[in-house]
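hey so u asked for the seq, here:
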Amino acid sequence: MEQALAENSLVLIVDDHPTNRLVVARQLALAGYASESAEDGRKGLEAWRTGRYALVLSDVHMPVMDGYEFARALREEEARDGKPHTPVVALTAAALKGEAERCLAAGMDAYLAKPVSIPELVATLQRWLPHTVPLLADMKAPLPLPQLGGDPLPLDPAILDPLTGGDPAETRALLSDYVATTEADLGELRAAQAAGDLAALARQAHKIKGAARLVGALPLAEAAAALESSAKAGAWDQVLPQATDVATAVERLRRHVAERFPGAQ
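ran it, C-alpha cells below
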C-alpha cells in the first residue's frame, strides 16, 4: 500500500456489492495494483477527499449516492477547490443504450461493462496511469473453454480461474463470500416479490446478475437478467416463473460449489 501511495497508483473501488468489490480488487492485485474500496458514492467521495487515490473505478447503480451523482460531486469539488483531475472509470452491468454517454456527461473518463477482464482493466489503467508498470501487461484475454453438450456449468472456469490463478484456497475464499452474498440477495429478492415491489425486484435481479457475471456464474446471470427485464416491463406473468428460475439457479450453483470446492461454504 505504501509503495502504491509513493508511486501514485492506488485505486479506489466504489461498489455496493461485496462480491463485486472482492473480485475487482483481486483482478487489480493480479495486475499489480493495490486498491481500497467504498460501498457507495457518498463513502467513495469521503475516501477520495483524502487524496490517496490515483484513479477511481465506480459502479453506476448504487444506493445512497449513485455513480453519476458521485462523479458530478467529485468534478464540482475539483473545480471549486482547484484539485487535480482524478480519472474516474465507470463499471456497470447495465449495457443500456446511452449508458456510456450518460457516464461521460456526468464527468467520468471511461466506461467498462461488467464483467471486465484483467486485460481490459490493464489497458484502461495504462491509459490513465501511464507511469505505472502492470504485472500482466502482456496478458491476453483467456479463450473460452468449449462446452461439451448438456447444460452449461454453474460456474465457467474460463472466467473463475483467472480471478484466483487456480489457487484452491483463493477460489474457496472467493466462492464462500460469493455464495453467502448471493443467498442474502436472493432473500431480498423474495421479499420484494412478496411485497409486490417490481422496482425493488428489478434492482435485486440486477445485483445478482452483475455479481454472477463477474465470477462466471453465467446460467444464474442469464436467469437474473431475464427477471430484471420482466420486472422492469411490469410483466408479472413472466416474473413469477423467472423468479423461480433464479432461485433454482442459485441452488444449483450452491450444490456445485459444495461438491467441487469443499470448504467454500
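The chain has two domains: 2-128, 157-260. The two ends are 30 Å apart (CA to CA).
lmk if thats what u needed
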